[in-house]
Sequence to fold (188 residues):
Amino acid sequence: MDFDRLLYVDDKHKILICMPCQYAIVPSQLTTHLRTHHSRLTVDQRRDYVAKVEGCSTLANDYEAVVYPTLTDPPVPFLPVYFDGLRCNALNHENIACSYICRDLSRMRKHCKDEHRWINEQKRGGDTRTKRLHSTNKIWTQNCACQRFFKVNSWQKYFEVAKQDGTENLELRTTQKQDFFYALEDDI
Fold:
């Protein structure tokens, strides 16, 4: 399998993306990732890939060096885009908008309670059919387009991206599908 069909070095964001797995890999964990998720690669291929990545000086080796996209940036290629994101709209103590994004309502409620002292006005009990999923005094926006670079716990963070029209997403999905089948072809 070719390096360019498996791994994508994103110099702009300083990350290494595994295209078949659709997430970024911490450079120091590449050997483990290749051994556990791409076991069909030979030991020599894995060594070559690790050597190429070690020779790449643009990759972030710690969490703080990763460059996250802004709200107006298009989605990062080779990563899935989720359209069920929840973005916190509260202002922090310096009157700067909170940038916390997640995809789970209970996590958003916990964040708002812990970080912004939010109090849920929705009471328990009653007719649940007439109640809304989100409380009336929510301080978050729902259905935001978001992505995530890493699956590693300490590096994991969702970020918002600009929603794209359907043609660009279709082209990206088609390219990813072609890359997937090329990878299968190489394995055969």
Summary: The first strand starts at residue 7 and ends at 10. The chain is about 30% helix and 15% strand. The CA atoms of residues 29 and 50 lie 10 Å apart.
